[in-house]
Amino acid sequence: MTDHGCIKCGSCLRACPVLSDPNGTGFPGPRTVGVDVPRFPERGRIGERALMCTMCHACEWACPSGLEITGAMLQLRAEVSPGLQLPGHLRMRENVRSFGRAVRTEFTGWREEGNRTLYFPGCIGLGPLAAMTTTASSLLTALGIEHDISSRAVCCGSPLLKVGALAEAKALQHRNMETLAAYERVITSCPGCTYQLREVYGVRAEHMVEVLKAKDLRSKVRGKWALQLPCHLKRGLSPWSAEALVHVLTGAGVDIVRLPVEDRCCGGGGGMLAGFPATARSMAHNKADAYRAAGVEGVITACPFCALNLGREGLRVLDVSEAVHAEKMR
Ligand code: SF4
Ligand code: SF4
């Protein structure tokens, strides 16, 4: 991270969804946390304020100087996190220590058949969104992609990395690499998992939208639907991955409405959901109001964290795998 080059233009501040949220008071903002504070020896005094961001990358995208703001914030988190005791983050770490995943596992439909492809739903997809995982698995099967869902695969480590728990994230990677060695291909439904497996582990991992974009699909839904373009899909993986979601849905005939808020952070990522639930809730609430005002049936996304956080607002929120079907499933 360079600590030079900030021209104090304020673009990052205007882009930050936490700063503009009524519940985001107390967050000093990306320029302070990601550019100014890391330069000073007293940076540890930032405390839990270093964790009050969703890692949505909007500040970095807005920065005309190309500063790696989120990378610097992650480093700062790693330095300060050993002294932090946020209840939600402690609970997440305890869950990982107890049973290998960031949330309680509710999924029971394991498939351990010796296939060469592994479907890796991610912690939320094996927990509160287990029904999504069952649907996604059926879609892959209908598309001729035989796959395992392994009970031995644990959290990819991304949630822990995001809150600064580097050693625990590394230990999870070590455990997963033993399991992944049996597979040639990994498909995930979570952009955070895809990034972690692909860019941190270095394995061949694909997000579901990258798999579906080349398939012949049909819509399962009626009426007009809005998009929730996940931060970690569009700004984490790539804008082309976000375009793949659009391509999959329009190609299948889903009537989608493009809204200006569609790529704005919902508050579900970066440890915000566990660490600062009131802020995560407020951000989701404000987005849900914008979707309701547009008069759509609901929202389609491609990230379990977005689906979980927005779904709590009473919106109909579908994963992409729940919105389409393969031709032969009709
Ligand atoms: S990553 Fe997103 S939430 Fe975090 S400081 Fe940057 S714009 Fe704000
Ligand atoms: S957008 Fe970049 S250059 Fe502008 S204030 Fe923020 S960090 Fe500095």
Characterization of this structure:
The protein is of the alpha/beta class and 330 residues long. It has three domains: 73 residues, no CATH class; 96 residues, 3-Layer(aba) Sandwich (Rossmann fold), CATH 3.40.50; 113 residues, Rossmann fold. The chain is 45% helix and 10% strand. The protein is built from 17 helices and nine strands. β7, α16 and β8 form a beta-alpha-beta unit. The longest helix has 17 residues. The protein is globular. The structure holds iron/sulfur cluster (SF4) (2 copies).
Mean pLDDT: 93
Task: Tally the beta strands.
Answer: 9
Low-confidence stretches: none
- Attached small molecules: iron/sulfur cluster
Residues in β-strands, percent = 5-15%
* Sheet with most strands: 4 strands, parallel
Question: How are the strands ordered across the major sheet?
Answer: 6-5-7-8
Task: Note the run of SSEs as H and E.
Answer: HHHHHEHHHHEHEHEEHHEHHEHEHE
Instruction: Enter the CATH topology name of the largest domain.
Output: Rossmann fold
By CATH, the architecture of the largest domain is named: 3-Layer(aba) Sandwich
